[in-house]
Write a structure and sequence with these properties.
Elements: E1 13-17, E2 24-25, E3 28-29, H1 33-47, E4 51-55, H2 72-82, E5 86-89, H3 94-102, E6 109-112, H4 119-123, H5 126-133, E7 138-141, E8 163-166, H6 168-182, E9 188-192, H7 197-207, E10 213-216, H8 220-227, H9 242-255, E11 258-260, E12 264-269, H10 270-274, E13 281-285, E14 292-297, H11 299-311, E15 314-318, H12 331-342, E16 346-349, H13 353-361, E17 369-370, H14 375-381, H15 387-394
Parallel strand pairs: 1-4, 1-7, 4-6, 5-6, 7-8, 9-10, 9-15, 10-11, 15-16, 16-17
Antiparallel strand pairs: 2-3, 12-13, 12-14
Helix pairs in contact: 7-9, 8-9, 11-12, 12-13
The protein binds 3-phosphoglyceric acid (3PG).
3-phosphoglyceric acid (3PG) binds at residues 19, 21, 60, 145-146, 149, 374-375.
């Protein structure tokens, strides 16, 4: 795949798709990871004398302008981070966008308003894509978090510009989530958590081809426990996915992949839990009785998983081990975060909740790579082609 390093951008209008879909509280950005992650590409383009025109979506505004989802506040934040003015166009197409794009000088930066204020974006409407494309001479996609969407600004636009390349963030994401997990230094240990087997089964299936060990946590462990004939009491489980889980266990055996489930769990009173608190809690080894609900992995499991991570050369972690938003049931997740960060292995955090958890744990500086993708990371780990990346190859 070609990157911005392979082309000459000086004096060119470079249309860059980034993923500035950041969490906001009012006008306040509560996590700027995705803005920071786009900086290497933006700074490089500026230093090379490109005329940088940035587009992104924010939230899901349903194809019409909605101030709640305006990228205006992001322009200010970006300007501070780049250390230079960032112009803002109140629309991503039409005369205001064209005027602003065409009056840029070399090394100047313009941010366009939310592309999802137009229905044509998510519809991947060719007319809308053509209008976006007309703003630039060159297209750069660096929106890894949105690469699983075939939208006008991620896919359609590539049909109307001759030069289409990726930025440094997409390049890095493909390296860590792709190459480094396809040809891993071994042992390659995968830690997967989260609530549902149905959300992760395709990732599990793909990783069974690559990993040496898969360690399971989170509520999906209870569906696997049912598949082994165990009891889970009132724990969250998916009875209709037990057969799917059983097949995955069988495949792991056939492939020689060690598949570990929690040997103990933190359980709480199921009635209290339904009322919104953990209530009484205890550590439960083996089967979980009715009236109790598993909410985190227990200390023995933590020790086992820690040891596996310590012996690993490559670690991939996606999904929390328990309800880490509540302190009492956060120990498993934070212990895994610590083990992954403090170990000597190449450590890759597969995006979403696990990135949130590792940041809360204070260990994020020590991991090798944290993906900026949520759905995009999962689809990529599943082995699916990402439309935003495929389009660059085809352009
Ligand atoms: C994300 O946050 O996963 C991406 O920005 C994609 O957003 P979407 O799910 O609204 O398409």
């Amino acid at each position: 795949i070609k990157t911005i390093k392979d082309i000459d951008v000086k004096g060119k209008r470079v249309l860059v798709r980034v993923d500035f879909n950041v969490p906001l509280s009012g006008m306040q950005i509560t996590d700027d990871t995705r803005i920071v992650a786009a900086l290497p590409t933006l700074k490089y383009l500026v230093s090379e004398g490109a005329r940088v025109i940035i587009m992104s979506h924010l939230g899901r505004p349903k194809g019409e302008p909605n101030l709640e989802f305006s990228l205006g506040p992001i322009a200010n934040a970006l300007s501070v981070k780049l250390g230079q003015p960032v112009a803002f166009a109140g629309d991503c197409v039409g005369s205001s966008a064209e005027g602003a794009a065409n009056s840029l000088g070399d090394g100047h930066v313009l941010l366009l308003e939310n592309v999802r204020f137009h229905k044509g974006e998510t519809d991947n409407d060719p007319e809308f894509a053509k209008q976006l494309a007309s703003l630039g001479d060159i297209y750069v996609n660096d929106a890894f978090g949105t690469a699983h969407r075939a939208h006008a600004s991620t896919e359609g636009v590539t049909k109307y510009l001759d030069t289409c390349v990726c930025g440094f963030l997409i390049e890095k994401e493909l390296t860590f989530l792709g190459e480094k997990t396809s040809n891993p230094d071994r042992p390659f240990v995968v830690i997967l958590g989260g609530a549902k087997v149905s959300d992760k089964i395709m990732v599990i299936d793909a990783l069974l081809e690559k990993a040496d060990q898969i360690l399971i946590g989170g509520a999906m462990a209870y569906t696997f426990k049912l598949a082994q004939g165990g009891k889970v009491g009132d724990s969250l489980a998916e009875p209709d996915k037990v057969e799917t889980a059983r097949l995955a266990l069988e495949k792991a055996k056939a492939k020689g992949v060690e598949f570990l489930l929690p040997e103990d769990n933190l359980v709480c009173n199921a009635l209290d839990f339904k009322a919104g608190t953990l209530g009484e809690t205890k550590i439960q080894e083996g089967d979980i009785e009715d009236g109790w609900e598993g909410v985190d992995i227990g200390p023995k499991t933590i020790a086992t998983y820690r040891k596996a991570v310590e012996n690993a050369k490559t670690v991939l972690w996606n999904g929390p081990m328990g309800i880490f938003e509540i302190e009492e049931s956060s120990k498993g997740t934070f212990a895994v975060a610590e083990a992954v960060a403090e170990g000597n292995a190449l450590s890759i955090i597969g995006g979403g909740d696990s990135v949130k958890a590792i940041k809360q744990s204070g260990y994020s500086e020590k991991v090798s790579f944290m993906s900026t993708g949520g759905g995009a990371s999962l689809e990529f780990l599943e082995g699916k082609a990402l439309p935003g990346v495929v389009a660059l190859d085809q352009a």
